[in-house]
Design a protein that fits this description.
The protein is built from five helices and 15 strands. With 308 residues, the chain is α+β, with helices and mostly antiparallel strands. The longest helix has 20 residues.
């Protein structure tokens, strides 16, 4: 949907629902309540890969259907927050009726003041301005946390997955259609990383300088006296993987890196192939200067200084 259509859908949402929604709530908070169709709830939970191990927080939980469905269908735990006491009573009563009140609860709370640290999954149905305001809080969560939103994305932060659903009963926003977006909170990869890899029987230093725009990472690797451009890659939470050809002994040698970022360390493997065969070598990298995640167009790497 183009920008003009999005703006029109936002106006439609505001104008079409203010009067009926006002009768169903106490008039508190920044959001007019619009229920998420059940088919969209099901798709949101599927895209988030919800399981019994998850703890879900629904921001603006309305009648509680997202948390209740997650608890009943997957055995997940979680809670929803809302400022509408009428809807909170409905949600808690529904959780009790469905037999999941031990795993699903709903509390009166401002979503911007909610502690999200327990969450492995965040769900929402918020307008774009609220999503952008919420974005820094989401990006501060533990890498690997999944975020799923209905209808509205997160501005410049492109989703990792998106899907359009046909929902004939939907009469607000973009009537007949719903848009579901999902993200995985990325680790902080930006900065300078140092490692050594045994090539031709002896360890060689590999110095990586990485820039990061949300979950997208690019940069260079210095091997010997040469800086080699790395392809842009997409982080999957803590996981990073990329392929680059490095000149060794006058010929290009393909390096396939894959690893897990944990704070200031990366651990994984690099598969080295010189054309005559491949071998897998352990790969460890240490962050020696921390960078900053960009939240817009790509820019120059800003190193914040060496790590202690």
């Amino acid at each position: 949907m183009n920008q003009a259509a999005r703006l029109l859908s936002m106006v439609s949402l505001a104008l079409a629902l203010v009067a009926p929604a006002a009768r169903a709530q106490d008039g508190r908070g920044d959001v007019v309540y619009v229920p998420t169709p059940q088919v969209v709830v099901d798709e949101m939970l599927r895209m988030a890969k919800v399981s019994a191990a998850d703890f879900i927080i629904d921001l603006g939980s309305g009648d509680g259907r997202i948390i209740i469905t997650a608890a009943k269908k997957y055995g997940a735990r979680g809670f929803g927050v809302d400022l509408d006491t009428y809807l909170l009573k409905i949600a808690n009563a529904s959780a009790k009726k469905e037999g999941v009140s031990d795993r699903a609860s709903f509390v009166e709370q401002n979503l911007f003041e909610t502690d999200l640290s327990r969450a492995t999954v965040i769900t929402s149905y918020l307008l774009p301005d609220m999503n952008r305001k919420l974005r820094p809080k989401l990006l501060a969560l533990k890498p690997g946390t999944r975020v799923v939103a209905h209808d509205y994305a997160m501005g410049e932060w492109d989703p990792d997955e998106e899907k359009t659903l046909l929902v004939p009963e939907k009469v607000v926003g973009d009537p007949g259609k719903s848009y579901v977006y999902s993200w995985i909170i990325p680790a902080l990869a930006a900065g300078r990383w140092e490692s050594q890899i045994a090539i031709a029987g002896k360890p060689a230093p590999y110095l990586f300088n990485l820039e990061q725009n949300f979950q997208l990472v690019h940069g260079t690797v210095r091997v010997g006296d040469r800086d080699i451009k790395l392809p842009q890659v997409r982080l999957a939470g803590e996981l990073i993987a990329f392929k680059v050809d490095v000149p060794v002994g006058g010929k290009p040698v393909t390096h396939q890196f894959s690893g897990r970022i944990s704070g200031d360390a990366i651990e994984g493997n690099v598969t080295v192939n010189d054309g005559s065969g491949s071998r897998v070598i352990p790969w460890k990298a240490k962050q020696t200067a921390r960078g900053q995640m960009k939240m817009g167009a790509a820019g120059t790497l800003n190193l914040a200084g060496s790590n202690p």
